[in-house]
Amino acid sequence: MPPPTLVNVPVDILRFNTCGSVDDGKSTLIGRLLYDSKSLMEDQIEALERSADITGGGQINLADLTDGLRAEREQGITIDVAYRYFATPRRKFIIADTPGHVQYTRNMVTGASTANLSIILVDARTGVIEQSRRHTAIASLLRIPHLVVAVNKMDLVGWSEERFFEIRAQFEEFLPRLDIKDVKFIPLSALNGDNVVDPSPHTPWYSGPTLLGHLETVHIASDWNLQGFRLPVQWVNRPNNPADPALHDFRGFSGQIAGGIVREGQKVLALPAGIVTTVKQIWTYDGMVGEAFCPQSVTLVLEHDIDVSRGSMIIGLEQRPGYSSDLQAEVCWMHTRPLQPGRKYFLKHTTHTVQVVVSELVTKLNMATLETEAGPAELAVNDIGEIRLRTAKPLVFDGYGTNRLTGSFILIEQGTNATVAAGMLRPPREIVKSENGDYVI
Q1: Can 13-223 and 322-425 be said to share one CATH topology?
Q2: Does CATH place domain 230-316 in 2.40.30.10?
Q3: Strands 344-349 and 352-366: what pairing?
Q4: How far apart are CA 298 and CA 282, in angstroms?
Q5: Among the listed ranges 9-13, 242-246, 393-397, which one has the minimum average pLDDT value?
Q6: Residue range 133-179, pLDDT digits in tens
Q7: Coil, strand, or helix at residue 135?
Q8: Residue 343 or residue 47, greater confidence
């Protein structure tokens, strides 16, 4: 029998976010990308031109493409996260335009949480400031694999090669302290379009790609974790259609693969039941397949009828995850009411929600120096720190650096259901094992 063939391969989609300080040109840059790559509808262009005639003195304001809130247009700043979609012949893109103001750091974390790449904009006139370090540190904490430092408004410093490399040197002073492996520096002018989609004649000293050229070619296929199979079960699929023999007594477990590859005939472990069984069938939207991989959505039919429900996790027998009630994590605090030890919340992790208590605040990150401060009394809104938690039931998880999907969570306030924190789990101290080392079935 020939080996299974990968089908229904996910479309090559690059998710990226823009961040930087206020008025560094984030929204203008995205507008320029959409405009110059001819990704706008005619009605969008007409609306921009009408707005320019009324308020802009005839000059199109590209930032209006993403700054959709009235308050954003009035103040000339980004407040909420705006998502935009476009495509070129080489790749599809999802853009998150995130706020630059320190007051909206939590919004930046939200927009960057699923990104493959982060664009840090720096005003060539002001250079590296605290917000530049803050956003670079957040990109590192979120384990965003690729970083672009876009030195914007180069036209306002006379396209100075010396100024560009001075800003690059400022970044390279603190980048070694952060876990970012792929960093690209690009000089550009978002307002005029230099080095955004087309190369600029003003930078003969720069031999690298344009911003769009880099976005189209950056390698992201290896960003997904294909080691260690993980399927958080979202629901039990029981169509029970007597008219269709294939669906009569059908019982499958549906969810999005969070890591690894699963193959027909593979042995898997269902947690927390601790039962080993075999994958009998793998179903996708396009029908039954021989194998599937992250981040596909699938339904698994198992060889044995076992107790698996929403919140359970089906894993491969290799590279076991952690299984513990005592957790350590880095969090970005998002609520105006400070985080203090002893507070109780709901913790949502993959498809599982459990009660949790914050047992200790370990450290807080000083964004000005990128140093940690031990034993803070509380974490205020937009603070980032390390905490310890204890859950009512053990959690099946990976370290965030190993798997961004099974290593992340949110905290939800009881009573209001408000999301108060986004968290990244530390690597597990305890690796899950079946009871007494023996497998059932």
Answers
A1: no
A2: yes
A3: antiparallel
A4: 7
A5: 9-13
A6: 888 888 888 888 899 999 999 999 999 999 999 999 999 988 888 87
A7: helix
A8: 343
| Pair 9, 87: CB distance under 8 Å | no
Cα–Cα distance, 66 to 81 (Å, whole number): 9
Could you tell me whether strands 313-316 and 267-271 are parallel, antiparallel, or unpaired per DSSP bridges?
antiparallel
**How many whole angstroms separate alpha carbon 182 and alpha carbon 180?**
6
What is the architecture, at CATH level 2, of domain 13-223?
Answer: 3-Layer(aba) Sandwich (3.40)
Shortest CA distance to 101 belongs to which of 70, 72, 69? 72
Fold assignment, 322-425? Elongation Factor Tu (Ef-tu); domain 3 (2.40.30)
Domain extent listing, the chain: 13-223, 230-316, 322-425
State pLDDT tens for residues 110-126: 777 788 899 999 999 99
Structure tokens at 149: 């430092």
Three-state secondary-structure class, residue 50? helix
Range of weakest confidence among 72-81, 243-252, 331-340, 353-362: 72-81
The Cα 312–Cα 309 span in angstroms is: 6
Cis, bond preceding 272 (omega within 30 deg of 0) = yes
Helices (H), 179-329: 211-217
